[in-house]
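agent: user wants the structure for Purple acid phosphatase from Hordeum vulgare subsp. vulgare. delegating to structure tool.
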Amino acid sequence: MCAAFRVAASLIRVLYHVAAGSVLGVARVLFAAANERCLRCMSQAALGRSVTGTFCGDLLVGAMAQSWRVLMQGLTSLVFLCARADEYVRPPPSPLVLTAHDKPAAHPQQVHISTVGSDRMRISWVTDDRNAPSVVEYGKSRGNYTVSTTGGHATYRYFFYKSGAIHHVTIGPLSPSTTYHYRCGKAGDEFTLRTPPASLPIELVVIGDLGQTGWTASTLSHIGGADYDMLLLPGDLSYADTQQPLWDSFGRLVQPLASARPWMVTEGNHEVEALPVVGFAPFVAYNARWRMPHDESGSASNLYYSFDMAGGAAHVVMLGSYAEFEKGSEQYAWLERDLAGVDRRKTPWLLVLLHAPWYNTNQAHQGEGEAMRAAMETLLYEARVDVVFSGHVHAYERFTRIYDNEADSRGPMFITIGDGGNREGLALEFLKDHKSAHMSVFREASFGHGRLRIVNETSAVWTWHRNDDECATVRDEVWLESLASPKLSKPTAGRHDEEL
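agent: tool returned. relaying tokens verbatim.
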């Protein structure tokens, strides 16, 4: 038995005694020691380097990283899922695709962009050099940077892991539907972005539970194969699950797409990473790395926020399934204010994203979104939200318009799109006798991504693209009519085959 497994076994025994009332300090010491050794190996492996000497060789690097990953996945499940005896059993995990970084320490990596207000962009990146400048130079032609903007950076610690400098710089004002070329930190590569349009039409990619596996790489390839204006992600990004080098690897994996179009994200359960025994607060890595425009939308938390698109023709609300949401909570009060400020005469489209689905006929994660649904569904219904996107369940499912567990033409259409490519595999078991099955229009356990093209003030088309060999197959399609339209009718049924 290698050292990693002996440490893991000792840790499990200590945690058992801690739960029974033993001294917490013992757990802290063992946990930190194990984490430090395994993170060191994982960091080197993620960078594509061998670790030599008495501590670990190539074989032991893989063994320790794998044992630690499995251990932490199990502990996370115990802490956050409280699985029942009949909980859905997932297929074996998929191997990770680790993206190495072998460039100088001041070279920007993990570059991604997000919208801030109507005419600005936040550029975020990481450098191993913590003294590298937080500067973005940009312009409308290659290599000709006419504007330079300075921001700031921060770092965070997680056990013995210390992040690189995480830079955030907001640039603008920018023109809509315009291509800009930019460079981060006065070093490294030039990147290219295109700003979203100032009016309809606009095309959105929607994908959840992305991870970093071969399945993820396939999904990203299909997404990049056709143009779009913005990507929306309802939680579960890197699946780091306390293994902080995996946040770095994930950032490098998605950089080609995330540096070119805005990625707007909200948190999932795999972003929590809280470990009460050793004193780590939730969402430390997520909040540091993926800063969203919550201040601009009046939200006190990076876990929920909103923003406008297409000159205000569409309003997007990103909710936090893992922030307090009950009536009387900060998130509930913020949502009330936010929805009250939406004038549907000027904003015909209203979209909501959250992680844990409110309606779900899959055996996996049954009922996990019910408390949030009970607390907030009426707010969404009264605001006439058009579509609610969620993730968490690793499959695709589209419902008709629903309110309070009944089909209702004035309620939102609910879509689960947690099929991006996570390491845990697909959730294969749909319940044919589920109470909501008669409202489930289409469901399939396959990897893929969705696209919402808002054509004009009244009409939009949703398509789900399944990863199918060399191309993304359009497997489901439906036209929607805005609920702000005077004519409130049910959406036209899309094409679909028999339920699996």
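agent: one observation worth passing along. DSSP finds eight helices and 24 strands in the chain.
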